[in-house]
Amino acid sequence: MLRSTITTKLPQLSSAVFASSSILARNARVVPAVASAHMVRRSFNSNNRKKQNLPMNTVIKFVPQQEAWIIERMGRFHRSLEPGLQILVPIIDQIKYVKSLKEVAIEIPSQRAITQDNVTLDLDGVLYLRVVDPYKASYGVEDAEFSVSQLAQTTMRAEIGLMTLDRTLAERAHLNANIVEAINGAAADWGIRCLRYEIRDIHPPAKVVESMHQQVSAERTKRAQILDSEGSRQAAINVAEGLKQSVILQSEANKAEQINQAAGEAEAILLRAQANAEGIRRIAEAISEGEGGHHAVSLTVADKYVDAFAKLAKESTTLILPASASDASSMVAQALTIYDGITKKRGVSPEQLAAAASKK
């Protein structure tokens, strides 16, 4: 009977075992996924619990400087202990939280963010914060530091998405200030104040870095060409300016030379006129005072008359001669007759000419 019962129930048992094994296999596949999803959170909380190591209630406690101890009495918040000597009620009072009031630096791990011009960047940073309200830091949020670090990451991604790559690289200070302002606005209810945020490294893609290097090289080449052209332009301007100045100076020199020549010629003409006047005056004095003045004039006129004909024969091939050119005495007489006729027409005698010349 027992054998028959086992034989009849064996298929049912095998099917049940197979079903249970499949269920266990599905659960085994699900558990690692859930564990991996919460691994970071559990590790962060376990680290915090190891760091805190809450002190025991020994009635008399000494609270260190820059620390705040949160006391619960019968499971309810009672007070916050300040640095110094503190007395607790045993069993009833419990030290629930220990908050450090010092400035804390939290490393923000590397993360990816997309800029406004669709460039993927790898960024990491450091967040500096301080607990300003121990009560809110204990009861306002489960894990204040973890929450602030997550908020810093999301805020940084949001701010990077509003800026282009060039602005992100050039305006780090502005980006840091915006992140600090956003964190302080969200963490006000957590009793935490973000003092500053510093982006430590920004890593663009390799192709983008190569393009940036090419752009810098092209910009430097452009500047070099501009400077070269500016130098050539300035050199040409300097040469033209030099030529202009040389022409101006040359024209001024020519002007001064012509002025000096004109002044010299005028001075020479004046001196020649004065010499001629002085000669005429002395000739007139000699004619009027001397006994043989008239004969001297006749001799002078005859001499110049003969010289004029001699020069005329040398300088020209055409000669116009009077009929009595061979008779020198007639020529002298003719010249004296012309002289006397001119003086008579003017009504001036040789004596008057001599007197006028003497007055001058």
TrEMBL record:
Any single Gene Ontology cellular-component annotation: membrane
Transmembrane segments: none
Subcellular location field: Mitochondrion
SMART domains associated with the record: PHB
Keywords of this entry: Mitochondrion
Entry similarity comment: Belongs to the band 7/mec-2 family.
This protein's name: Band 7 domain-containing protein
Organism annotation: Linnemannia exigua
